[in-house]
Amino acid sequence: MEQEQDEVILGVDTHLDTHVGAVISSTGKLLGTQSVSADTNGYLNLLTWANSFG
């Protein structure tokens, strides 16, 4: 039987040179934060990081 991953929510605080992402659980628990560059590589890194939570 395949195990279902938990849902997580990614919020992003955008800035000129960097963006800061925060991942929370469906119950609102902060799971982590990460700062990335405000470019395509940074966006991909942020999504990969957020997907690692669920």
Features:
single chain, 54 residues, alpha+beta, 3-stranded antiparallel beta sheet, 3 strands
Describe the overall structure.
The protein has one domain (8-51). It has one helix and three strands, in the order E-E-E-H. It has one helix at 40-51; strands at residues 8-14, 18-25, 30-37. A hairpin with a 4-residue loop joins strand 2 (18-25) and strand 3. The longest helix is centred in the C-terminal third of the chain and has 12 residues, at 40-51.
Structural class: alpha+beta
- The average pLDDT score comes to 91
Distance between the ends: 17 Å
Kindly report the spatial arrangement of strands forming the biggest sheet: 1-2-3
Would you list the SSEs in sequence order as H and E? EEEH
Number of helical regions: 1
Rg over CA atoms, rounded to whole Å, is: 12 Å
Q: What is the 3D form?
A: globular
Please estimate the helix content.
Answer: 10-25%
The share of residues in extended strands comes to 35-45%
Provide the low-confidence segments as ranges. none
| Total beta strands | 3
